[in-house]
Amino acid sequence: MEPFAKTRTESIADRISGRILDGTYPPGSKLPSVRRIALDEGCSTSTAVAAFESLVTRGLATSVERSGHFVRSRIGVAGSRFRASTSNLDVVRSRTHGLVRRILEMGQDPSITPFHGAVPHPSLLPLSSLGRHLSSSLAAGSSALGSYTPAGGSLRLRRELSKFLAGRGIDAPPESIVATNGCMEALALAVECGTDADAVVAIESPTFFGLVSLLEDLGRKIVEIPVDPSSGMRLDLLESAMETHAIQAIVVSPDVQNPTGARMDLESRGKLVRLARRHDATIVEDSVFSASLFDGDAPAPLASIWPEGTMHCSSASKVVAPGLRLGWLVPGRHLERVLRTKSGRSLGGPVALQDSFAGFLESSSWPRHLRRFRHAVRSQVRSMREAVVEHFPAGTRISDPQGGYFLWIQVPGLDCLELFERALQEGIGIIPGPVFSAHRGRFRDCFRLSCGTPATPEILGALERLGRLVGSLRS
Ligand SMILES: Cc1ncc(COP(=O)(O)O)c(C=O)c1O
After folding, report:
1. Phi and psi for 359 in degrees, rounded to 5?
2. Residues 6+ apart with CB under 8 A from 83
3. Integer CA distances (angstroms), 343 to 189, 215, 324, 328, 389, in order
4. I need a labelling partner for 158 at 20 to 30 A (CA). Which of 61, 212, 400, 424 fits?
5. What residues have CB less than 8 Å from 102, skipping those under 6 apart?
6. Which atom of ligand 1 is nearest to the CA of 119?
7. What atom of ligand 1 comes closest to residue 184's alpha carbon?
8. For residue 12, what is the domain's CATH number?
9. To test the ligand 1 pocket, which listed residue (116, 180, 191, 315) has its Cβ within 8 A of the most ligand atoms?
10. Beta strand residue intervals within 38-121, DSSP E
11. Residue 80 pLDDT > 60
């Protein structure tokens, strides 16, 4: 994968933003002057001015003529200020929230403003380039449609994936990779083959609701480990949970966590691996949003730090095309078992689709697409975050994601199940917090807002209406 470097301006803006979000510069306070920042950072005053402009665009600061820059007073804060449950590390059996099915069906309804969606708008996807690769795979005729792949999938695809993974520091020869039906099948194979039938699995809280359904379906027990929206899974709490329960696997998204957008730093990754090793647990690394990191700068994947003990899962769904249903799993020491299970279920994969995606990865369209995609998504997230700061009531807390296209929003005192129903009556989709947990009632005052659609005036207008609705329901 081709990373694109963060500019000096953005790095400086990130540092100031970190100090705003951790409370060093509280809401309403005056920020250091342009000259002070230029001196401290050793940069020109024009770079410092540009960094402040970036903070204004991010919705974190305002500029007051002749007075300087101030932290916005109605700022959404991320990180530790989110009110998350940290005490309940009990084992639970998951139960699918009845709403999940309704939410999945809403995904198909074009009349609903898609703040509930988990896919990027089609205008952001490289569909015409993929179409050309698909036509040329089909033109290969009998070889694409007239044969089975091996259980692990098309060799051409696995060779390309091997190169792609090598770019992220993961040493995975083609024969160690299994092509799957999306990341969902990769996760299912990983949990099924990496744990016993009655195993306890640690997951992030909040987490992607498909994982909760999957664990229910497989009969695994769950321990939810709270996520800090700025730094990912709370490893101190994971450590306590591992001392109390025999946890066999830890499912974690260290690059871009769904729904919070948190990115785990390198030091924490090392700590997580040491913990898993010490307790002989398998790590299931969900990397489905990694390519969407805005700065392309993902620290070493867990599968590169601990290849034998990590099952690395990902797919093309979140940055290329969800409809391809093209995922992959690097199962480490569980490879043989995964291949047996995959073969028993489905023999192999769709050759034409797998080869066309391989063709896309081989081409120059892929790095070009990634650059364009990350820029577009970052600017959508920023504009929508700014609109939330503008239109939502004081006290609203908003995540500050490093990638992906979700905002995780907490409005203390708000019932987000009611918000979900009322917003739907106004033609607006959101995903209420409780579906992101196996514990009934958790995250009732939170919801996920998707920024996958370009921030057009209609989208920003819908956000303004949503903000008014939130204000009226809370008062
Ligand atoms: C965190 C996470 N993992 C896995 C998946 C499943 O991805 P796929 O569509 O490739 O099966 C999703 C889909 O939303 C997701 O959000």
Report:
1. -60, -40
2. 397, 410, 412, 445
3. 11, 21, 20, 15, 50
4. 212
5. none
6. 14
7. 11
8. 1.10.10.10
9. 315
10. 61-64, 68-71, 91-93
11. no
For the segment 189-228, what is each residue's pLDDT rounded down to a tens digit? 999 999 999 999 999 999 999 999 999 999 999 999 999 9
Q: What is the pTM of this model?
A: 0.85
Ligand 1 centre distance from Cα of residue 315 (Å): 8
Distance from Cα 288 to the centre of ligand 1, integer Å: 6
- For tokens 């730090």, the residue is 305
C-alpha 202: how far from chain center: 18
Cα separation, 74 vs 77, in Å, equals 9
Lowest-confidence segment of 69-83, 85-99, 437-451 by average pLDDT: 69-83
In a domain? residue 30: yes
Percent of the chain at pLDDT > 90 equals: 73
Q: Is 279 exposed, middle or buried (0-12, 13-18, 19+ CB in 10 A)?
A: middle
Residue closest by Cα to atom 14 of ligand 1: 118
If asked whether residues 188 and 113 sit together in one domain, one would say no
Tokens encoding 58: 């991010």
The Cβ of residue 264 has, within 10 Å, a number of other Cβ atoms equal to: 24
One-letter amino acid at 158 equals R
55 and 184 share a domain?
no
Q: For residue 120, what are its two tokens?
A: 């990027």
Task: Tell me the mean pLDDT in the region 106-112.
Answer: 85
- Identify the band that residue 464 occupies on the pLDDT scale cut at 50, 70 and 90: very high
Asked whether residue 88 is assigned to any structural domain, the reply reads no
Question: Can you tell me which atom of ligand 1 is nearest the CA of 257?
Answer: 1
pLDDT class for 105, splitting at 50, 70, 90? confident
Domain span at residue 99 reads 94-123+368-473
- Ligand 1 pocket list (CB less than 6 A): 118, 182-184, 208, 210, 253, 258, 286, 288, 315, 317, 322, 327
Same domain, 133 and 275: yes
Task: Quote the CA–CA distance of 427 and 425 in Å, as a whole number.
Answer: 5
Residue 233's H or E segment, with its range, is strand 232-233
| Residue 198 and residue 244 in one domain | yes
Beta pairing, strands 310-315 & 247-252 = unpaired
